[in-house]
Write the structure tokens for this entry.
Amino acid sequence: MYLANMIKVAIATAIVLWLFINWTVLFPDSDSRVRYVAVAVYAIFLIYWLVGPEVFYRRYRYRIDDDKAEIRRGIIVITHSLVPIERIHQVQVDKGPINRLFGLANVVITTAGGVTALELLDEDTAESIASKLNECVVKLLKDRD
Amino acid sequence: MHPDSPGEMVFKNHFTYILQNLLVALIMLGFIALVWWSSGTFELTGNFLQMFLVLFIAGYVFVVVRIWYCTTFVFDESEVEVTKNTLFRRVTNIQYTKLASVNVRRTIFNHIFGTTTLLFNVNSSVNSTVAEVNLTLKTKEADRLREFVSSRILQREMVLEEEKNTDTLVEISNTDVILHGLFGQPTAASIVGLLSLGYSIITFVLGTIAIAPIIIFIFSIVVPWIRTILRYYNYRIYRVGDTITVESGLISNYRSSFNTKKVNSVRIRQPLIARAMHKSLLEAEVVGLADTESMPLLCPLKDHGTVYKLAQQLVPDLMFDTSGKRQPRRSLVPTMLGKIFWSGVALTICAASYVVIGSYIPEGTDRIYIDIFRYSILAAAVAVPLFLLFQGILSYRGREFEMGNETFLFITGAYDRHHEYIRYDKVQMTSVASGPIQRRYGLGRCTVNLMASRGTASIVSGIFDRDELEKVSSEVMTRIKDGRYDYRRYQ
């Protein structure tokens, strides 16, 4: 998460610096105080990007039972999500380029009503959770037959 | 019909399918011909754009004819097989038990050529607005096929004559349809349209004509109004056994039938002005029933008592008597703090706009335009915070949450109010979210995800005790564990 946020910080910093330096050239008739407002907004985002991952990590919890999957996560707004196994249609393991660098993966759970994910897990843990969820779903379907 | 084997019926689309799909291409071709004729030149060479358009239309015609020729529909006792053999070959098999609804359309084309278009939708959130089977046949043939397929989907013998003689459960007059067209759409769309109209009037008075606001007004108010009148004229709704049928239409006729067990939730919607007139409308979330218009409508704008009574007749298992549990008093704090914050943001944007845009007004501009700009910003600076603060108060007073035996109720909205009755058994996922101030008071908001007529839907509650909201997911899980949820009931 830190790496992804550092990329965002780098891009935002470059844009804000460029705007700040060239403000009077780009907007010759405007009030120069406006650029300080833009810098203040940037500072708020900077704090969020730097502090957010630590808060996210400390708060993130998940639990997989035989009948449901629960996820608790959030930085400012904390969300507790519940997905009954009976509603799961599809389970997949996603590994983006940044996650692959650190041996991490996301488990994406798809239901008929939407999608949720268990994020930033160890690859092995993600694979075993996906496997367990798939087993539960298959067992449920077999019991129906 | 040319049976391939006993018990099978094989169909192709009526040739008018080609004409319907070529309508736009034909209009374009006519336009190009008109331009050529008016310019006095008919040379095909040396005019690249016109050549390109002619080739494009010719190619489109070829594709449509080929699709028509190479698509067949085979109906047997248990499923329908759609074979498309154009550039790629695709065979789709759909069991009747997987179909959610049977829809009938008769547009002007159908009336002229004596045909009917049948649409069958699968009970799935994927591709929910596009029918899996879209078949145009001669009306008598279509009626026979509809009876045959409906009896397999709805598991009862369907007799069209019986349906024609069944009385509608609610009388919808022409006045009701017109009022529905005017006041049935969301208040936000009406406000945008009225603001655009106001702006174009002001510019007209000042001696200029602004086209864009007039276009916005026409497309946000006038066109939906006319479309609604044409769509819901001659409205009829009735229930025969477990099957609800809705018919309407002035120029194009629409008929949709579905089983009550396919209804995931119902919504009694009250836009602001309609609520002031003590009127509401009834909508249903039925997977596979939506078209390009909106959520399926069970009752256009009528008085609230009539709408509620109709809901109890159509879907009695979804409705229950409520005791009116409103948001707790302490929810006022996070609600109003949030509104005050956004009011501050709005005031900041107004002030910044005044300073920044004001510095770009050229010297010598007419005073009247400067005054319009100033008063518009001032009006926005007063109106937007007032709007937000009233929204906070109305949502605190109006939002409710209650749990019944088979369904639960969310009443949401401030200016436009929605009463959502949702089946526990149709809930796919729940989330309870709390912001920093809500957490301090043990409050939160519940988001419920369902399969819906347009794919998926999320319904968000008001601000209630977190523990109370968690009971929704607990009840969903308990019903799965103790067997009250039976998937076979909804197949």
Notes: Chain B has a mean pLDDT of 83. Chain B has four domains: 9-158, 174-314, 330-397, 399-490. The interface with chain A takes residues 124-125, 352, 355-356, 359-360, 427-436, 439, 449-452, 456-458, 470, 473, 476-477, 480-481, 485, 487 of chain B (CB under 8 Å). The first strand of chain B starts at residue 9 and ends at 11.
